[in-house]
Every structure is written in structure tokens, then in C-alpha cells.
């Protein structure tokens, strides 16, 4: 067994997290989820304005918690939390587009999509918690795991940059696999996950969508959890930043689901972020990148992807305008 060297542990913040902090985080997440479920209890179709307001509120919640982290544990912990939050938030945009393809394929009405995504996020929190606990434990016990995770992230980043057109194909393949093992009715039964058809209990398309959402999120977590572990080894910071980032995914989905074509260079930005944190992680045994420098690089890459995408969108619009 190779223990992580002392200088490597010192590169990342180590904070004393009492049990009451974990309980407080769990209660906060539960309350926020309960409020969100209550607001959407009537299965209505959210307007663009409503989704934008809700997404802004979720971002405000995540950033407010970063203030709590800074107040209780200091600037270094704040930097690691915010880096993890930005990484997960940016990588989650790909989740949104895959979900859009999936829910369109299943013809799930807009008013029922929130219900599917709500329970999908609930399950994602549980799986992410397990992934983070296992990943953090491996990093603390085995030095070489850092190099392995880092190389994997660099490879994933390069793959994300190269491939974009086949996005969502994996989700539809998983859907076909689900249908082989779970009988799925052709028609919806309101917002129910199960129904009866010709005296036989069957899953509705909503349950099929939920299963695929959960599976695809686990697949995405294989990329995002190691990426966050590249900027922080403290389980509380990693989980809280991850949780607050994905809690707002439902609202972000209704804002961005139809805007995929506007993000021309998103894959380049996300791939670059994955490659950067992968290199940072692989080299962590020998060289440590300052937390706030790392945060600045991640923000710059994300901003560049957005700016260049918007410039390209405007250029394409001008080309489509017929001459007078």
C-alpha cells in the first residue's frame, strides 16, 4: 500500500468538518428539494422566464453556500469549493443536452419532464455521494490513483473535443436495453411511473426515462467526480459543490434544452477543462497548481467557449440574412 506523501496532502485544504455540518448540509438539500417539488406539484409547463428565474435562484444558493464555506473554513476552502462547483456546473451542460434528446425520443410532454428530472437528480445525489466517498478514499490510500484519474480525464477531454455529433446515441441504446428487461407501455398514464395495460402491470415511458436519466448520470459522474477530486480532496467540499451544482440542473434544462446549436464551441471548452484538471491531477505528486490560479484557468476556458460560441452564432445569423 502506497500512502500519499505528506507534501501532497498539504497541497489541498484539510478542514475539520463536524457531524453537525454534514447534518446541516443534508437538511438544507432536503428543504430545497421539498420546496422545488412543492412548486411543481401541478405538472405545469414552465415558461422560459420561470425557468430562468429558478435557475438564477439555484445559482444564488450555490454561491451563497460558498460564502458559508469561506466564513467557516477560510479562503482556500472557498477556492476549492468554487472550483468544484464551476467544473460540475459546466460539465452538466452536456447532461442537459443528452436529457433533451432522450425526453424528445420518448415523447415525454414538457409538463411531466420536471417530475422525471426531479427524481433523477435525487438519485444522482445518492450515487455521487458513493462515488465521492470511494474516490476520496482511494486517493488518500494510493498515490498512483491520482495519475490514473488524471490520464483518464485527459483522454476523456480529448474525446469530448473530437466527438460531438453522436451525443445522445448512448442514451438511446440504454433505452433500448431497458425496454428489453422492463415492459414499457406505449402510452402515458398522467405523471405515474406505473400503469396497468390489459390487466398487466407495466412501466410507463416516464419510468423508462427516469431509469435512463439515472444511468446516463452515473456515466457522466465517471468524468465529473474525478475532475472535482482534481481540485479538492476534502469530501465535504467535493460533495457540497457537486450537490449544489446538480440541484439546479432541472431549471437549467428548461433554459438551455433548446439552445444546443448556440453552443458551437462548448465541447472544446469542456474538453479543455477536463484535460487541464487531468494534467493537474496527474502531476499532483510532483507539482501543485495554486487553487485560485486553477479557478482562474477554469473560468477563462468556460468564458472563452461561451464568447466564441456567441460570436459564431451572430456570424451565422448575418450570413442567413438575405441581401436587400
Amino acid at each position: 500500500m502506497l500512502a500519499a506523501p505528506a507534501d501532497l496532502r498539504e497541497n489541498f485544504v484539510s478542514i475539520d468538518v463536524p457531524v453537525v455540518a454534514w447534518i446541516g448540509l443534508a437538511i438544507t438539500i432536503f428543504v430545497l428539494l421539498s420546496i422545488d417539488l412543492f412548486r411543481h406539484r401541478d405538472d405545469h409547463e414552465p415558461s422560459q422566464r420561470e425557468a430562468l428565474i429558478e435557475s438564477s435562484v439555484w445559482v444564488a444558493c450555490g454561491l451563497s453556500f460558498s460564502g458559508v464555506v469561506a466564513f467557516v473554513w477560510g479562503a482556500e476552502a472557498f477556492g476549492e469549493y468554487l472550483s468544484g462547483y464551476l467544473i460540475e456546473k459546466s460539465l452538466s451542460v452536456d447532461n442537459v443536452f443528452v436529457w433533451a434528446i432522450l425526453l424528445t425520443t420518448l415523447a415525454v410532454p414538457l409538463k411531466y419532464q420536471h417530475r422525471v428530472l426531479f427524481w433523477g437528480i435525487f438519485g444522482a445525489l445518492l450515487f455521487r455521494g458513493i462515488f465521492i466517498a470511494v474516490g476520496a478514499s482511494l486517493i488518500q490510500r494510493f498515490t498512483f490513483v491520482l495519475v490514473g484519474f488524471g490520464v483518464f480525464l485527459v483522454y476523456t477531454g480529448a474525446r469530448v473535443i473530437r466527438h460531438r455529433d453522436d451525443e445522445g446515441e448512448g442514451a438511446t441504446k440504454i433505452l433500448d436495453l431497458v425496454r428489453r428487461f422492463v415492459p414499457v407501455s406505449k402510452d402515458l398514464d398522467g405523471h405515474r411511473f406505473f400503469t396497468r395495460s390489459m390487466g398487466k402491470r407495466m412501466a410507463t415511458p416516464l419510468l423508462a426515462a427516469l431509469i435512463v436519466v439515472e444511468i446516463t448520470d452515473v456515466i457522466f459522474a465517471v468524468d465529473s467526480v474525478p475532475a472535482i477530486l482534481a481540485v479538492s480532496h476534502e469530501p465535504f467540499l467535493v460533495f457540497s459543490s457537486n450537490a449544489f451544482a446538480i440541484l439546479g440542473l432541472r431549471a437549467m434544462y428548461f433554459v438551455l434544452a433548446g439552445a444546443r446549436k448556440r453552443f458551437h464551441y462548448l465541447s472544446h471548452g469542456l474538453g479543455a477543462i477536463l484535460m487541464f484538471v487531468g494534467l493537474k491531477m496527474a502531476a499532483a505528486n510532483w507539482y501543485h497548481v495554486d487553487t485560485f490560479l486553477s479557478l482562474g484557468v477554469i473560468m477563462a476556458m468556460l468564458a472563452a467557449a461561451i464568447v466564441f460560441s456567441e460570436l459564431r452564432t451572430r456570424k451565422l445569423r448575418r450570413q442567413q440574412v438575405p441581401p436587400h
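The longest strand covers residues 194-197. The chain has a mean pLDDT of 77.
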